[in-house]
Amino acid sequence: MKRKIVSAALAAVMTIGTVIPAGAAGIPAAEDSEDFLLDCGTRTGYDFLGTMENGEQMQALYDEMYESAVKLWNDTSRRIRSTDGFYIYDELDYCGLDFDDATRVYFTMKADNPMFYFASMTSLGDESRFYMSTNADYARGGERTRIQEALVDYVTSTAELAEEGELDYDKAKIVHDQIIYNVSYALDSNGDPSMEEWAHSVEGTALRGEGVCESFAKTFQAVMNYMDIDGYTVTGQAEGGDHAWNSVQLDDGKYYLLDCTWDYVIQGDEFFARGSDLFGREHTMDTPQGDPTHFLPELPAMSRQDFDREYYVAHGSEPVKGDINGDGEINVTDVVLAAAHVKSIRALEGDWLARADINGDGDVNVTDLTWIAAFVKGLIK
Asked: CB 3.0–4.6 Å: which of 12, 241, 244, 381 could bond 1 by disulfide?
């Protein structure tokens, strides 16, 4: 999984993108839409950008980048000409940002919208403009038409197959299995991970039947988002190198992690729907503080424990007594929370209050606190 930055002085030859209203750049992944691109994406990154110091400018530039990519997706009659070896389909003002922040916005826009297969792995700009670029493979409108028709067919047919699953967990597992059992890892002639752009996009997995980790992750995200199940492509480090995997929200409302690439290697599901306790040892996520090529928006908190399908079928979303903060573990943190409530230091509310009411008498008091503490100490089961 690679990202690149190129700063280049280029002649201004393309039209300037039109600004669209703030918030029009996407919808939450769990929201349904009749628009295919919107349904395959999310606005997780877009919303996070709005919380940053230059959030307004970042979202404004994101909106322009998004609209520019949508226009190219829709305009399959357009042929993109080469300019000094670069295939530029739009040029944009920085909206008051510098090149590094524009690069963060660009990679965030791509991460939110995995269907933009043609969006270059390279961030390209000069002192005054950011350039939306692609490569020669996607310069011809006829080729983009062929690819897009095949992508739509892959996403919709895979989603249709996955909808046979009873739980969101089952649907995610079907999509996961379609990838790991039907796609090969893309290698170059030296046996190294392919650096071809298609191998890092949905085109690789969905059309060519091969790709690298980023392609696996983006394809999984696109299908899950299309089914209105929230998920994201997570970037970071694993085994000392750049890597990409996924987060996904399952039936209990919590977010879990999975790595299609590692499961492809073992041809199994060891890294499916796992909690952060496992992934924290094996994978290190990028952060919002990372350099432009390792920038990852803040994602929803992950469950520490694995998803337990058998338990969920038996208990549904019923609150787990004693696990007050819902992190999948009953420990000293829950004791502290219960004690703070009993001592009227900080009142528990909603699900937290329900999970603290061990004996179900409608009140959280010393009795409940004692039971939670005894469980943590191993005195009771």
From this structure: 244
Say yes or no to pLDDT of 238 above 80: yes
- Evaluate whether 142 touches 76 at the Cβ level (below 8 Å): yes
**pLDDT tens by residue, 92-102:** 999 999 999 99
Please, what is the average pLDDT of the chain?
91
What is residue 359's predicted lDDT score, i.e. its pLDDT? Answer: 87
What would the mean pLDDT of 130-141 be, rounded to a whole number? Answer: 97
Q: Which two tokens stand for residue 54?
A: 């230059």
Predicted confidence band at 302 (pLDDT cuts at 50, 70, 90)? Answer: very high
Report all structural domains of the chain as residue ranges with CATH numbers, in order of start: 4-138 (no CATH), 141-310 (3.10.620), 319-376 (1.10.1330.10)
Query: What's the predicted TM-score (pTM) here?
Result: 0.82
The residues near 240 (Cβ < 8 Å, ≥ 6 apart) are none
Identify which of 221, 222, 233, 234 has the alpha carbon closest to the alpha carbon of residue 287. Answer: 234
